[in-house]
Amino acid sequence: MKTADRTDSPDRAAGPDGTRASRPARRGVLRIGPWVAVPVRRRTAIAAAVSLLLLCAAAVATLSMGRLGIDLPDLPSALAGDATGKNAFVLNRLRGPRLVVAVATGAALGLSGALFQSVTRNPLGSPDVIGLSAGAGAGAAGAALFLPDVMPVSVGALLGAVLAMAVVFFSTGTGFRSPGRLVVAGIGVAAMATALTQYVVYAVERDKASALTAYINGSLSARSWDDAAVVWTVLLVSLPFAALLARPLSVGEMGDDLSTGLGARPGRTATWAVALSIVLSAGAVSVAGPIAFISLTAPQIAKRVARSGGPHLVMSTLLGALLLVLADLTAQQLPLFDDLPVGLYTMAVGGAYLGYLLLREWRRPVV
Predict the structure, then answer these.
(1) FRET label pair with 322: which of 47, 92, 149, 333, CA 20 to 30 Å apart?
(2) pTM for the complete prediction?
(3) To 5 degrees, how large is the angle CA 304–CA 308–CA 313?
């Protein structure tokens, strides 16, 4: 693994007379073996390091805050395997698995959203748009109503997500190659899946309906190390494929005609990117339910933090993990509510972010 420096497109810096002069920005290339070359800009590297530090701080706060938290002086020894009594319970059963699941789930959703938005070239695009989350909710609802003692809700959610994506794939007529058809088909599938979910919530008993509603809103409560193993396996297996797609996606953002002229294959790249995005989202949904807006907001925040073109896969992964850990920390520690599903907090953050984007559009002059 090595890096090589080179200059990137010029940044603009203000001169003494108020004009903006050009200066080359330095950029490195991170090479992993002979096949993978990932461009690394200095600003992006700094932003990634800061995001990682914030993620570590949020993880420490998750384990240590509150009445049941592990005291900070005891935390290093507990993490080293010397936890006993209350600390062992908190680390191994209560908050440890929940934190590990939150990190991997947020990272998977952030990376999934970055892949999908890069392919569709739509800042409002995410796997949620094409019906994956709605399909997962319908699958969970169907398992709770029709197979309550046979199929776990999480398995039903995974099967529902896979079935919804299969319907979208075949209904477009072009698979995952046409972003426009993909979105239209996904909206239709999402509407039907949502209708099924609402019927099931209305039909099942009150206690079951409450538990089901918590799951389909996205929840990290009562997660286990088995859940952590599932989502981390999906994430770690997907990361090398995402790294291989980084360069074709960057070229593809120039447009299909230009990328084809440069030797890229935009149709094949789109298919693989959407398929990988679906795998990541399905892995996250299978353990935490359909958590909304992480896959939508994380790539957009990454793009604004890095202030450069490209899909920003690494930054989106880190920010997805950070956003979900912070949302779950709020869900655990906010005294106003009693451990609400974390998906409700991410909905609030996503809604506020969409409002911010809308205000920015309003302030732009009409041409």
Answers:
(1) 92
(2) 0.81
(3) 80
Radius of gyration of the chain (CA): 22
CA distance 141 to 135: 10
Tell me the pLDDT tens digit for each residue of 249-300.
Answer: 877 666 655 556 555 666 788 888 888 988 898 888 888 888 878 988 898 8
Q: Contact 298/114 with Cβ under 8 angstroms?
A: yes
- CA–CA separation, 342 vs 240, rounded Å? 29
Q: How far apart are alpha carbons 4 and 25 in whole angstroms?
A: 14
128 closest CA partner among 201, 182, 202: 182
> For the chain, how many residues are written?
367
Amino acid at 330: T
The CA distances from residue 312 to 203, 224, 236, 299, 303, in Å, are 44, 31, 18, 7, 7
Contact 51, 318 (CB under 8 A): yes
| Spatial contact of 129 and 179, defined as CB atoms under 8 Å apart | no
